[in-house]
Amino acid sequence: MESGLREKGGECGMTAVTLRSPLGRIRVAGCELGVHGIQILTEGPPAKRASDGPLARVMCESLEEVTTPVREAADWLMAYFDDPRTVDKLPFPVFHHPLLQKETFTSRVLQTLAREVKVGETVSYKRLAEMTGNINAVQAVGGAMKRNPVPLLIPCHRVITSSGQSGSYMGGKGNHLKEWLLSHERQ
User: Fold this and answer.
1) pTM of the prediction?
2) Active-site residue, selected from the candidate residues 12, 31, 60, 156
3) Is 12 an active-site residue?
4) Contacts of 74 (CB under 8 A, 6+ apart)
5) 28-52: per-residue pLDDT in tens?
């Protein structure tokens, strides 16, 4: 666990926790006001469920020094990997990333996606552009997915092409992860 990190500008006292998940290690970082970012640190193909244990676990010794929003995000992610249908019963983590604090098209797209597209559902880039009020902004929606600072919590993996293809994830290097996530949610 890392603690005491400072955000650029010195405004936020950051803490972080690393989870071991089927996707590899996942780092969740944030401050007292909310989660700033999630990094999926891939380590190869997604793991299959072991019959004797959970799909995700915290890799650090203690969560005592971790901020409440980071702890809630870690709990949410562990529940998601165990059974995605259970996450709607948990508190949804609060975000404090600057991108999500501003009134921009990207922020509106990401917030709409988090609010409207539930576990097991998918939405096309085109439909998400319509949902955010700009039917012609399909490429901008794709750009918003690339800038998503909190993947998994804001489920950019649920955004697919109009033809039903999964589309790119993590700049193309995570396409196998996107397929795994969509399959995991359908089970």
Assistant:
1) 0.84
2) 156
3) no
4) 17, 19, 28, 58, 63, 66
5) 999 999 999 999 987 666 766 444 4
